[in-house]
Specification:
Immunoglobulin-like; 2 domains; disordered N terminus; signal
């Protein structure tokens, strides 16, 4: 069966813009580009890492995010190597093409080793400068790489470019600079014990998750405020009490807007956590809207600890990081006119229709 690649790209772009992180400064344009000097609206970038190693030891986590893998050392004290798939995507929902800037549009990764970031920024895995990101389309690619799980990695997709005129030239770079960025931490869990963390967001007073409520609002084509109730917990399933490194075991909500991240600390896991017990936090209520032009919202919990009186805090660790996928524009357009307000009387019609009926009855009596 043959497929039209162009059509597939457009479909992916429309789905992607509602389901992934993005950078935007204003509503999507409905006409031609206007030189405002602001960043290009309606750009999206995404970055991912999933486990693809075929070794049977990874059967339970194959296809999952790299952060789901927990590793332990072998008899020599070494952590295993593992095959993962890096992926990136850039989407442009604007009405104009974007020329990606040489040396500044790229997908790259780095480790915590000193100098690694600068080295890999200058030698990215995927240099994308010089390519054209067409209006309504996406660029994407993936690559299988082998990682040493003893290290911690960060992967990033960076989009920089300029608006392309219909004639093919570049709009004045000072007024048409486009930028979007996405990064993800790839940190393998290094644990010798069974501890877990979890975070949840529910619509206050209901059993509906915040994400389900947002998704329903998106399909219905409406933006609405609601009370989001956040809860977190850290649990210890070891046969002994767990001493907690409180400074590194934190609970928080974070927002990111225009590149600025604001962390709101909620609490620190104090411990010790008894065997088979959990330390719980919340509910923390926050009013949020199902729509968001720029702001991204995250909530997380991190746990580090060890057996009582032991010094190695990395022995037991777990973390949960979640984000609410809000949308900029409803899938369905909102009504052009505000809905009518029902009459306070017993009739089903509005006040204007009721008055009209009375006039008709009076007219009949006069006749």
């Amino acid at each position: 069966m043959l497929f039209n690649n162009r059509v597939i790209h457009l479909s992916l772009a429309s789905i992607f813009l509602f389901a992934h992180d993005s950078t935007a400064q204003q509503q999507c344009p409905r006409g031609a580009f206007v030189e405002t000097g602001k960043k290009c609206p309606c750009l999206s970038v995404d970055t991912g890492c999933k486990i693809v190693d075929t070794d049977s030891a990874f059967d339970d986590v194959r296809g999952m995010s790299c952060g789901k893998l927990e590793v332990t050392t072998d008899s020599n004290g070494d952590y295993p190597n593992i095959e993962v798939e890096y992926s990136w995507e850039m989407c442009n929902k604007n009405s104009f093409d974007i020329k990606l800037k040489q040396d500044f549009a790229k997908f790259f990764d780095w480790t915590k080793r000193k100098g690694s970031k600068d080295e890999n920024i200058n030698n990215p895995r995927f240099p994308l400068g010089g390519k054209t990101l067409e209006a309504g389309a996406c660029l994407n690619q993936s690559q299988v790489v082998t990682l040493d799980t003893a290290n911690r990695y960060t992967i990033a997709t960076q989009l920089e470019g300029f608006v392309v005129k219909e004639s093919g030239g570049i709009v004045n770079p000072q007024n048409s600079y486009c930028y979007a960025f996405s990064n993800e931490s790839v940190s393998f869990k290094k644990g010798k014990c069974n501890v877990t963390t979890d975070a949840a967001c529910m619509v206050e007073g209901t059993t509906t998750s915040c994400q389900d409520f947002i998704d329903q609002a998106r399909v219905a084509g409406r933006c609405a405020d609601f009370n989001a109730s956040f809860t977190w917990k850290a649990c210890n399933y070891q046969p002994y009490d767990m001493k907690i490194f409180s400074d590194a075991s934190n609970v928080k909500i974070a927002t990111k807007n225009n590149g600025l991240t604001i962390n709101v600390p909620i609490a620190n896991v104090q411990g010790p956590i008894g065997s088979g017990e959990c330390e719980k936090f919340g509910p923390k209520t926050k009013i949020i809207n199902t729509c968001s032009d720029d702001e991204k919202l995250f909530y997380s919990i991190n746990l580090q600890g060890s057996k009582q009186n032991e010094k190695f805090w990395h022995e037991c660790q777990d973390f949960t990081f979640k984000k609410l996928q809000r949308f900029r524009e409803p899938i369905l357009k909102a009504p052009s006119k505000a809905p009518s307000v029902p009459s306070k009387g017993k009739g089903k019609g509005n006040g204007r229709n009721t008055l009209s009926k009375r006039k008709r009855r009076a007219t009949r009596r006069n006749l």
